[in-house]
# Entry
Amino acid sequence: MQKEEISMTFLWKPEWNFIIYKGFIFLLHSKIEIKELEWYVCDHLFRQYNQDKRQFEKESLVKAMLNSYLRYRNSNLHHLSEMMTVIVENLVARRVIKEIKNNSFELASRLSRLQCSKCFYICYLIDNEPRNCSRCTSSELHVFPRKNNKYPVKK
Ligand SMILES: [Zn+2]
# Structure
């Protein structure tokens, strides 16, 4: 039988929000906090994509969050930068972005902004990701905002 010695090593995976070090678990940031920031980062990348800006650095993302979103205006720079490291890893794993050189990235594919018809959540997905709502997994997604109103309001 193999003996696993996970407590002896420094273990960390980007999809985990904690560190196991010498048998102790250190929580880094809550999953909700990470998910929320990831959403804002995708929103920012979507807007950048539409302005033909596909390349960026990790630090420029942190600055963009502080400057463009009220939600993060008073955030701690260090805290935001730490979370951004996790998010960048997540986005690389999702193949939304790819690293071109140290801490420089580019969008790997077109990002679409889609709204779920069931729960109204807005998701940002790249072309080869399954078309499912990130909140309720429904496959009824439509482009947001709708380009042509298929259901005109009755006068
Ligand atoms: Zn949904």
User: Anything to note?
Assistant: Residues 111-143 form one domain. Helices lie at 31-50, 58-68, 77-93. Residues 31-50 form the longest helix (20 residues). Residues 116, 118-119, 121, 133, 135-136, 138 surround zinc ion (CB under 6 Å).
